[in-house]
Every structure is written in structure tokens, then in C-alpha cells.
């Protein structure tokens, strides 16, 4: 069936969504996401280093290489971001493709923390949530993964099916927070 | 009356406003209360029950009288305290509980009937006939009594909820709070300083005194400026901490733009904060309490501290000839400040024998104000001295019965305050709230110097707990006056003396409660309604319980207090529910075919958080039933396409995956061959059915479990519990892949042809039989194919990564339409499964067992599984339990409705005769009549019998025949196709 094609589609239109008071909401391109569950196996750290140049992150942390990222993703679970896992990782962990399961939105700017304070119970002060900190938490009742990616930047991930709601909630919170600037 | 100078108002900025239709002017910095007083408006409300005229009583959030309605139309806001409402241009306020006007109110007649309307009157009078209470009496009483009214329209305003975190939360920004915040901030702690006022400083803004050689209010402003410059300090004005909760969490209400004219755009009205603090200092100050005497509710009777607030902060004199009446040194300050402001002090009455003053005022030591005269406001006072009575012309009484530390927050975790006889007040119980340190007036320290020291000390304790070293913050010099109180709660005498102004409760009512044997303070409260108004008795609780103690011959500490509960001030439900209106109520989970389905005009139906297509209307179809019938026929005769991605999908891997499934399912999965699928049944620990679904074995150590849409989260949680807690030593790894895969059912006799053509591979029974599964490739994309059926037809489910979901759905629908089929929705899906007697959570309702469902053979006898032991309990295996059957109508009435009850044909349709109920029902176009699934006592043995289905709500009675649960193709030949 030569005429057959399936078109890939991000849950959200990629690109800039809004920018208010220097704070932006942006949908980045989809990246490969793979869940790594080592179980009792000890070899994941070494294999990750060898094949992807990444160290295994501590709970609540992420590690980076030039091309990839490893995210702590819960109890005995990691998320490999940005690259397809090397085949030999299957020897030291259970791999599950999650690339289509999560939607990612970037929130960056001076109001980012205040916007998140309206949607999420996490303590996002520098001391509690420094650069490269990550947490599984909630954003307005949605199970989420939140990662600090820059001084004022946060990467927010929710299930793909809820991406629309996430974007709506972020826009609304940003608009209301920004409206306070002129009080 | 506005004083010619002074105050924290900006006289260069006049502000026009309206009260009860009249135009007035005030200044920037005024509250509505101070502006009304400045304009000589004395009566601002009518009382709750007796409709007596009421004036402004306090200068803070404790106000029991001056509740007004703000705004018009949908933005009407009742019960706004005039004492905390900042004035803004164009503010429109109306008096409440009066008609036609606050000055001349028809319901004033209630006051003449006061002798009949005391506490308990309603309970005793409106008893008969019983039904009349709800229909007649209550609406009548509610109309007569009351406080403001809501507009009834949808609230157009926006609200917020937010979280904040800090090392130290300082509650209140008076001298104590400012000092505590300063000490902690200079030591490097992350500090949040909350105060309910717009201008920080607390009493410092209302008093004339010095701190560190400058005026107290200047010191407050300077300290605030210092704090504002520090990056580790967050100052939250107009923010009242309303409650204390576990783990150092505090609720706080921020009034974001209630001080601004309407036209708010995206600005929230209120923001409800949840503040998480490692340490907290309670510097909430104290609330002055009145003394009860005859007619002490008349406009013009005011708390002495409030009089000082109006004179010193707002440059308003509440009267032209003020009588000051108190039982402590503090009251004398009021006379002093009035004199300094040039206001005539008619008398300084001090209840304490031997009290002294240097002030040049008529002074009455050892005397009391016995009553006030004047129908619409204070005109004269009667002073009782040892020598007799004296009547003085006076239009304002500034009264102080002492101060009550604001212990409220220390009681929110069930702490009981401790009585201090010297201060005649309750103090916070030590350690009442973990990591919350009461300080300053809230801890019974009533001098400014004492408060500054107490604030610094509290901050020091907090810093120690935080592991920070205190910097060398100097405590400035300040006034260290005496308090010296002799308790006085009420002045005995004839007539009515008010305790609770808000709920119209008098000394006589409290006595009456005791006489009726409501002697416990909690009973007295409920009998009289004292303390139950929006002010929560802030100015009346202490007086009421002291009177109760007196009547019952007990001391105050033995009588005890009622329980202070959150919130400290009223919190609008709109703030608590911020963002939850309309679609904000819950997240929407959308399938990848959502947009396509909408473009096909499919109405959506909610399944948990998911939105699923109900049906896909075609031209000429006017009702959902027409579409549904067509879709059912389409699946039975050609091929239908349905997005089933919402079903839970759980990836289960590991060396012990098979063993794990054997343990969580009643039936066996270790024997399942790779490339095959099996239907499974899962019980809860208590033996009832939790969920069902199919599980596919993709590899020796790799399964994919399917759950129902509704129970996906529940099952995931259950599996995690089993893996982490019950079998932690097993090698099992779980992850939800629900969102990773878009899964679409292709069902109907032409489904094989469709998929063979699409996938270019042989799907004949030999290659891909019923319950087979395996990898497929479509347009170069790897996916999965399952031969499973929820319709009883030859059917498949194809799964592709979610990014291709929309594309896949479009493709399949187009192919199906070319074969005479098309998309079908949840309505048709439901009819298809009903015809086959397949289960949903209408049947797996948490109360049914495997046996009830006719699935007892799925309980594998040779192994252990969760729920096995509990499922064998006698009650769960009793023969007479209701069992799953199907129903079809056999009489003239053809309706079967879900929720209806089943009765024997000749039994009266009453509760005690019910033998079961209908779980699901619908019209089967295949069979040409309505069908239903139901649970019926001994149902399995009663096939062929006739029963009555009675739907009491819809008033339907249908004669039904009991049938086997599977109507259509009971041999399953079509599925095996």
C-alpha cells in the first residue's frame, strides 16, 4: 500500500503560545522519552554512562549530556530524554517508550514561579528547587513532572490527553498574575 | 465629624462615594466606616433580629454591626465590613436588613415585641404543624431576620488560589510582628509577613506614642521600608491568615482588588493562599471587648480603641461629646487623645475604685455607665456612682472592658486557651500549634515596649529552630504603660444589655439559656446563637461566657470557651473554589481522535475525565437513537470504528511478571502463550470484583494489561501496592502506557477484510485466531494488533503511538465507510455489549462477586490470588444472592430503565419486596426490543420466569421475562468468524 501514510502530531501546536511581562509559554518539539526501570539490576548507571554519557540522577534530580538527559521519574524509575536508548540498555533495565505519553510545555520568565504557585503546591524557591531539580507533583489536579531548566525556566510535563487543559490553565494563571502588575 | 488636621489620610485626594443612595465624600486612606463617620452618618445597619438601628462599633475585622452590601447587579457583595473596606472612587454601598431605609425600617416593630422574641422563641413557637416549619415559618423568619442577600446571578469576578512557602510566617504586622519579621529577616530567614490591613503597623497607626524617638507610626513606616528592601522578605498586605492546618500549613485570604473600582479585567478579587511555613510567629494582637449595659447597642456606643483609631488614624471624631467608660488604664488614653484632638470629653468613667487621672475631664472613679438614652443613637448617658445617678448629654460612648488576645489560630488544632486571672483574659495554650509562637498582645503582652521585645524573642526562638543565628537587631525604646484591669462584664440593671450585637443576643438571653439548663457554654451558644454570626463572636464571646459563668455560679475558666474554628474571617466560597468554575472543575482528557470526532459532529460524553464520542450523526438523523441504531447495525453487518484509547493500559514486565498476574487475577496468566490474549478478573482484598479486562502476553516476561476506563487509576494503584508492599521481592516493573498508545476497535464482519487490506497481511483464523495479538507495521510505523471483541463480532483492536492516533482514526473511518461502515460511539458500543451480556462498571459496581456475575469458574482453584479467602465468606457465596440475568419486556409496556427495581409478579412494589435491580438497559435494534442487564435473587435459576420491573422515579412498571445474559449469538460463532 504505497499510498499509505500516518501523520505524526504533537498534542499541542508547537511554538510560542504567549508572552506576557517577559514571561513566555512555549511548546517545544516532541523528543524521544524512554522509561528505564532497572529493578534489582545494578548496571544501569554504568550502561548509561557508557552509551549515553549520562550519570544516573539522584532522586529529585536530572543529569545532562550534550544531546540527552536522564530524569529521575519516580521510585526506581528514570526517564531518558532526547535520544533513543541503546539496545544494550535492555540488559540492565526494562525500557518502555513514553515519547507519545507526555506533553511538554516550557514556562520561562520573571513571573514563572508566581504562575506555578497558582497551579502547583511545590516549594519552588531556589534553596528547595535549584537548577536541575525535578519532581513528580500535580498541576491543577493533573499528574505532572516539573523540572527547573534555567534561572526562571521550568519544564512542565503532563499526560498527553491533558495537554490542552495544561495550556489553558497556564495562560489563565499568567494573565491573572500579570494583571496584578498594574495594581 | 472630620477633624481639621492629623490622621493617615491624604486630604489632597478626595473620593466621592454613595451610601444608601446619598452622595458623600471621603479621602484616600479612609475606610468606608471612617468616611461615614466623617460625614456624620451614625446609623449604618439594622440589627439581625430586632431591626434596631446600629452604628459603627469597631475599626477592624471584628466589626459586628457595620455590614453593608457593595456594588450592584451580579457584582453585588453582601456583608462587607465597612470597617475594613477601603474607600474608592464611585464606591456604592447599601445598608442591609432594612426597608424602606436604614433610618426608617418597617420591621422595627420586632423591637416592640422583644419580650416575645428572646432566645428559644422560634424553637418553642413554630413547632406545629410540623410541615409548616419548612414551608411557612422558616421562609418568613428568614425574610425578616438576616444579613445581606446574594444577587442570585452568576459571579462574573475572577478569583485565585495560590501556594507560598517560607521559613518564617509572621501573622500580623503591629509592633510585635514588625519586630519579629525584622529580627528574622536580618538573620537571613525567608520571611512572609501578613497583615489584614492595607497599611502595616497595627495599633501603632491608631495610637499616639513614640518608638525609638520617633512617632510610632513613623517607626512602623520606616521598619516596613527596611523590610521591603530585603530580598528574603515577602510582605502580604490585605491578607488575613484564616486558619491553621497540619504540617505548618496556613490558609490566608488576600483581598487583591477590593479596594479598587470595578472594571477589573483579569485581576482577581481575592486570592486564597496556602502558606507552608517551617516556623510561625502569631502576632495577631488583641481585640477589645465591650461592657454590657442597657441599650449599649445604640449608634454612638463604640469600642474605646476604635475611637482612638478614628481620631488618630482617620482624623474623625465619632462624636461631639464623648463619654469614655472603662475598667482599665488603657481606656484613659482615649480621653487623652480626644482632648488632644480638641474633642469634648463629657466624662471619663472608670469602674475601678480608686482609679486616678491627671486629665482635665469630668472623672468618675468607681462608677459605671448604666444606660444610654436616644432612640436612634446615643443622646445622653446615665452614670451610676456610689452617690447615685447622673445624666449627662453625650453622643458617643467609648467603652473598654479590656482586651482579649487573638488566640483564635492557636485553637485550630484543638488547643484550648488558658485563663489568666491577672489579665482577665484567655491566653494561648503553650505548644498549642507546633512551631507557632504566640507573641505580643496575642500572648497577653499589652505594652508597646513589651510587644517589641516579645516579637524579637519569638523571632529568636524561630531562628534557633531554623538553625540560623540572630543578627544584632536592636530593640528600640518604647512606651511601657500599665494595663491594670478589674474585670467588668456587664452593668446590672433593668432593660436589655447587648452581648452579641451581630446576632442580637442580650444578657437576658444568656441567663435564659442557663435557666433552661443549657449551662454548658457550647449549649448556650447554640440556644442563643451567640457567636454564630459572621463575626464569630469576636467582641462577644468573652462577655457571654462570663455572664454564663456568673449565672451558673462558676468561674470563667471552669465555664470554658466555645471552640474557635477556621476561618478567622469569612472566606468567600468563590475564593476557595477559585478556577473551578465551568470547565475549570476538572482537567479534560482528550483522545487523539477528539478533533476529528468534533468535525464529524459527534457529541461528547464524559467518562471519568475523558471525553468520548457519544455517536456520529449522519444526515437525516434527528435523534441520538437513530444514529445509535444505525451504528449498531453497521457493526453487526459491515464494520465499525471506535476509539478505545481511554481504556487503561499497563505495561507489566520482569522475571516475575507471570507470577504477579496469577496473584492479582483470579484466573491464570502464567500459562498464556506469548502472542495470545486472555480475559481476566480481578478481586479486591475483600473478595468483591474490582475490575476486568484483557491482558496480552507480548513476550515471555512482558504483558500488557487492559483495564476499564473508569478503573484505570485504581488498578494501577492496586498493582503498585501489590508490587511494592505485598510482593516487594518479586521482579515486577509497572508503568502506565495508556497515553502512549492510541487504540482503535475495528469491529464487524468486514473488519478482517479492512485490516488485511490495510496491513497487507493475512489475518485468517489460522494465522491470527481469536485472542491473538502481535506486532504490526502500518505505513512504516510499528504498532500492535489484538483480536479481541467487545461487540460479539469478528473484531480487532489496533494500537499505534499516540502521535499517529488522529491519522489512524481518519484512515480507518475512511476505509470503513468505503465498506459500508463507519465510526461508532459510546451509545452503540453500549448496545453491542448489552446484546452480548458483556460487563461494565454498571455491573462491576463494587458490591458484586464473581459468582453474582456468573464468573465463578474464573476463580482458579489451584492457586492463591488476592481476594480468594475473603470471596469464600458465607455472605459472598450465599445461594440467594442477586445474580446477573438479562431482561426483555413481554407485556404492553416496553421500557426497561437502569436503576429500576425487580419484584415478583404479584408482590407489592415496596422496598422490602425488592429482589434486584436493573444495571443497564437500552434498545436493541438487532432484536427489535428493549433489553436490560439486572441482578435478581437466584437469578440464574429463574430464566423464563416473569418479574415486574418498577421504576418508582419515572413511574414505569414493565412486565419482563428473565433471560440468559447473552441475547445475541450465544455460541460466539461470529466472534470466532
Automatic annotation (TrEMBL), chain A:
A Pfam entry, by short name: GCV_T
Listed InterPro entries: GCVT_N, TrmE/GcvT-like
Superkingdom of origin organism: Bacteria
Ranges where the GCVT N-terminal domain occurs: 93-173
Protein name: Sarcosine oxidase subunit gamma
Species for this entry: Pseudooceanicola spongiae
From TrEMBL, chain B:
Keywords of this entry: Oxidoreductase
Gene Ontology biological process: tetrahydrofolate metabolic process
Residue ranges occupied by any Aminomethyltransferase C-terminal domain in the UniProt entry: 908-969
SoxA A3 domain sequence ranges: 495-579
Cited InterPro entries: 2Fe-2S-bd_N, FAD/NAD-bd_sf, GcvT/YgfZ/DmdA, GcvT/YgfZ_C, GcvT_C, GCVT_N, Sarcosine_oxidase_asu, SoxA_A3
Lineage: Bacteria, Pseudomonadati, Pseudomonadota, Alphaproteobacteria, Rhodobacterales
Domain of life per record: Bacteria
Domain GCVT N-terminal: 594-860
Protein name: Sarcosine oxidase subunit alpha family protein
Family recorded in the similarity comment: Belongs to the GcvT family.
Molecular functions (GO terms): sarcosine oxidase activity
Organism (species): Pseudooceanicola spongiae
